[in-house]
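Record type: ASSEMBLY
Status: queued
Input:
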Amino acid sequence: MINYWSAGIYPRNEKLIESTRSYDKTLEKQFKKEKSRLLKIQSNNKLDYISDPLIDWDDNLRPFTDNLRGIEKGPLTRYYENNTFYRQPIIKSKLGTTGNILKNNVCFDLFTSKSKVKIDILDPFTFYDLSANEFYKSEEEAVNAFAEIIKKELNSIKRNVQLIQFNSPSLARIEDIDRLNMVKKAMEKIVKGLDTKTCLNLWGSDISNTLEKFQEFPVDIIGIDFTSSNVDKFDKIEMKKGLACGLIDAKNTKMEKSSVIIRELKNIKKTFSPESLAVITSWDFEFIPEPFADKKLQIMKQIKEKSKMMKL
Amino acid sequence: MKRFPLATQEIGSIRKPRWLVKLLQDKNVSNDVKEAARSDVALLNLKLFEDIGLDVIYDGEARRVEMYEYSIRRIEGLQLAGKIRSWDNKYYNKGRCTKKVRYTGPYHVDEFLFVKENANKMIKLPITGAYTLADWSYNEAYKSKEDFTIDLAKKVIRPLIKDLVKTGADFIQIDEPAATTHPDEMQLVVDSFNESIKGINAKFGIHICYSEDYSNMYPEVLEMKNHQYELEFANRDSWNKGTSHSNRNGYESFLKTFKEYGEKKEIGLGVLDVHVDEVESPELVRDRLLYAVKMTDNPNLIHVNPDCGLRTRSRETSFAKLKNMVIGTEMAKKRLGL
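Status: finished
Output:
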């Protein structure tokens, strides 16, 4: 059986965009209403894990930038190769958290009791890489400080969550084994005692040279962005983990054909022989306008139905 | 074109007055009235820039919705897909390319003729470049981004520039804010720029902003046939006065590389942060300029501008910033005996 889910921040619809620009007094209510609608859309399109569309987050780091102790807001900074910018966190002193940032910024009150809930959070290296470090003496020290923060945050919500997805675009770029080992150790500290299914989602880079190393990471599923990594570049291997395939291009309005994706899935299954298989979006959906994201979710549903029929 | 040291200039957009935005949104107002109102604001911007004392001016892009969308709406093969976040609550309308692109006639010509008729200073005309148009659009029609970008350069931007030069434009700033987004695509940025201006005689600048490190443009950018770089720096610089490397940390890396490669092109030095309301003091502007002159050993290479268009700030803040930019430049000139 193949699982399906979407990742990260969902695009705001036109009405919501206008409301955020005019600082509409009913904005909070509108966010809540729209989040409920988007959760329903995820359910209707038969996604196996449902996640907060995070439409009220100004960027992937903002709730942490705003609420972590030791952080000051820095300049607007380009978010990887996108024409989208985030407010860079500047580490000024020892990092600290109340452990309530996710609790207060994810819509746990809107999930139904039937929902299998997925939570998105950056891995500690990506947090570090997107920040400016003016306090910690080494990369390792800063990564470990973020790992402690993430652990505390996840421990406070883990009872309500069935899948934790670490979104890791910066980590996906690393090829140096010593640095990967350092992050692996930090991840081990995070997941120790967590007892929740985890996915390390390696967005935005070709990881054909480093997949073997990532297999040693203490997570249940590895996510590969197949819009950046070509399947043919990987050697045939026996994966010891689940594989989440970023086959739905969240950065292009061109619609996927379900038949093409199914062919890709067959090829992927042959190449990786993973313990489990999932189809996911390649990045946050917020890089395409809302109507296109909606259509892509419908395509995911079609793929699910077809692959079920074909007993893939 | 004559070179003169520390010439002050605008980069592009200035926020439209509230009354104009309201009028443009009013469905009961005729297009003629709207066009006349746009002309009023273009003229107002020109005269305000002249009064402030800028040496090189344009109309604050009073007739354009936004630098990218304005072009997308006028190029065959491109259409708007919807809104995408730029940052926080700021969004832009992103285009998609659904068939091969085609130039269907000049845009910017009428606005340029109006500026030419009314300006008493040197004119610099900003247009959006091929690479940025391709990078910011979804490509559904071409096999590769390279094919898409070069086709835009040859078939749209080059004929547009030819038409603009025919009407008298002699200094064109090609806006390429996406230029350094993908460091491994710098050759494509250079090739598309050179294709866009091929065989055309005018002064050309390239405006780039919010790069992680402009030094990544080298060595490829040496082949670019531009005469000026207009770059953002203030956003990343400290607000401390002084001309030491530590005080001018936002400028140091690029200026060192610029010197190392023996560059002789002009730099339009971004001295105003367009994302904050705080107004830079004339002394801070002065020190940023003195530092750039110290690093390049040639004041003729340094021109002075904000980091980017000022449209995200209020008009009051924008003009206050520009005023201090001009005062700070005069202070720097005095210090340098220019």
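Annotation: Residues 100 and 251 of chain B are 40 Å apart (CA to CA).
Annotation: The longest strand of chain B covers residues 90-103.
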